[in-house]
């Protein structure tokens, strides 16, 4: 069955070619749609309804056949309700985004947005989307080959989205209903551990990076990023928590930092950001820093104070780490985490070290604490994890490393 659309004046209309009656051509048409996209969606809907016997062509009402009750004759596909208009996948994605953009934290929303823009490339009505379409879209549109843990993460978010679609009544069953994702499964734990193992910095790589920061200490730009790097590595803070720090959050006498907020950059171009509560309730915590970090923070504060005197404008928040480049027109604004990520990428290439991210520094911190013999419960509180299950994935890798060293220690008996 075929159909066409056309514009008539300021509105759009569609024409559907129906099965001929007594050898005579028969068509169904409808107009008055405000946009081309709206008309295309209506056309797809009517073709599907007619093809599957869901509508009486002459009276334009649902039929009383089995299919009209939402039973799909193809048992390999999910089934659909008839009390809601059939929609394009992209339209429901727009609806989901609009519904959630102010209901969930910005970072969580951003992660979902990335996934939704990937599956938006499946240019189909919602009732035609299959699990194969979703997996193919994720693999095709990924920036780089995905590890198992990344694919599972994408699929978990996709399942949450399609559960929303089912709840709204657009379909009766999610296309991913046969895919089980258990974040506590042994298979996923092993995949996580292998992924984390590759991301943890070796001791010689850490020394190389520290030497680079020390050698370039005269550069305000490098020194500031160096302090951020060391704080993330030595305290296990999240990048958003670190960049949200204000001077009032730091107690130099106790050498402690109170973590109770994180920062979300909404628009780097227009310097738009907001401060929110951290990821979980357990993320509210106090962490401590050593004498070396204390000295570097004192130098940073002196530098920031000197900038305040020389600049006409300063941001209302007294951030520890601020925009200080010559191109920056609004001094005192927080550093964008994308700038720090790009900095890490550049120095890793320059020093010929494997590529790292802020979160990999957090993994490295966990691994180092494990190897020092710090109890799992203490590490979990230091990181702000809600439970020890999350921490145990990294702990598993680190404890295996310790066991290997113990085994290697007995080699001396053979020499």
Chain-averaged pLDDT: 79
Q: Tell me about the largest β-sheet.
A: 3 strands, antiparallel
Give me the number of helical elements.
14
List low-pLDDT spans.
59-76
Shape: elongated
Listing every helix as H and every strand as E from the N terminus to the C terminus, the arrangement reads EEEHEEHHHHHHHHEEEEEHHHHH
End-to-end separation in angstroms reads: 81 Å
Q: How much helicity do the residues have?
A: 40-55%
Number of strands: 10
- For the largest sheet, list the strands in their spatial order: 1-2-3
- What fraction of residues sit in β-strands? 5-15%
Structure explained in plain terms:
This protein is α+β, with helices and mostly antiparallel strands and about 425 residues long. The chain has 14 helices and ten strands. The chain has helices at about 35-50, 90-100, 105-120, 130-140, 150-165, 185-200, 205-215, 220-235, 240-245, 290-310, 335-350, 360-370, 375-385, 390-410; strands spanning about 5-10, 10-20, 25-35, 55, 60, 250, 255-260, 260-265, 270-275, 285-290. The strands form four sheets. Strands 1-2-3 form a three-stranded antiparallel β-sheet, with helices on one face. Strands 6-7-10 form a three-stranded antiparallel β-sheet, with no helix packed on it. Strands 4-5 form a two-stranded antiparallel sheet. Strand 4 (about 55) and strand 5 form a beta hairpin. Helix 3 (about 105-120) packs across helix 5 (about 150-165), helix 6 (about 185-200) packs across helix 14 (about 390-410) and helix 13 (about 375-385) packs across helix 14 (about 390-410). The N and C termini lie far apart (about 80 Å). Residues about 60-75 have low confidence and may be disordered.
């Amino acid at each position: 069955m075929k159909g066409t659309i056309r514009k008539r004046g300021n509105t759009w209309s569609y024409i559907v070619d129906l099965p001929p009656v007594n050898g005579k051509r028969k068509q169904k048409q409808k107009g008055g749609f405000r946009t081309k996209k709206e008309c295309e969606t209506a056309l797809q809907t009517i073709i599907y309804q007619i093809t599957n016997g869901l509508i009486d062509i002459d009276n334009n009402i649902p039929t009383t056949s089995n299919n009209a009750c939402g039973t799909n004759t193809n048992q390999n596909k999910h089934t659909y309700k008839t009390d809601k208009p059939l929609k394009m996948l992209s339209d429901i994605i727009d609806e989901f985004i609009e519904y959630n953009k102010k209901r969930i934290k910005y970072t969580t929303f951003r992660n979902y947005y990335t996934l939704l823009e990937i599956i938006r490339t499946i240019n189909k009505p919602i009732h035609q989307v299959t699990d194969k379409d979703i997996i193919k879209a994720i693999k095709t549109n990924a920036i780089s080959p995905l590890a198992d843990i990344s694919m599972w993460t994408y699929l978990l978010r996709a399942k949450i989205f399609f559960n929303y679609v089912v709840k709204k009544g657009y379909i009766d069953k999610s296309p991913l209903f046969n895919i089980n994702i258990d974040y506590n499964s042994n298979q996923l734990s092993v995949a996580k551990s292998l992924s984390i193992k590759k991301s943890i910095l070796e001791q010689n790589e850490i020394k190389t990076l520290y030497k680079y920061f020390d050698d370039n200490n005269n550069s305000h730009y490098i020194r500031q990023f160096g302090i951020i790097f060391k704080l993330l590595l030595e305290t296990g803070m999240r990048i958003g928590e670190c960049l949200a720090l204000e001077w009032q959050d730091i107690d130099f006498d106790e050498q402690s930092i109170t973590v109770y907020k994180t920062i979300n950059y909404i628009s780097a171009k227009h310097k738009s950001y907001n401060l929110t509560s951290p990821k979980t309730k357990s993320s509210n915590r106090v962490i401590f820093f050593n004498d070396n970090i204390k000295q570097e923070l004192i130098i940073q504060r002196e530098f920031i104070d000197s900038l305040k005197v020389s600049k006409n404008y300063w941001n209302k928040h007294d951030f520890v780490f601020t925009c200080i480049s010559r191109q920056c027109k609004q001094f005192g604004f927080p550093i964008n985490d994308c700038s720090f990520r790009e900095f890490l990428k550049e120095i890793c290439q320059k020093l010929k070290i494997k590529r790292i991210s802020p979160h990999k520094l957090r993994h490295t911190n966990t691994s180092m604490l494990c190897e020092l013999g710090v109890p799992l419960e203490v590490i979990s509180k230091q990181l702000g994890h809600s439970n020890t299950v999350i921490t145990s994935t990294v702990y598993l890798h680190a404890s295996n490393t310790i066991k290997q060293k113990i085994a290697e220690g007995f080699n001396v008996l053979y020499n």
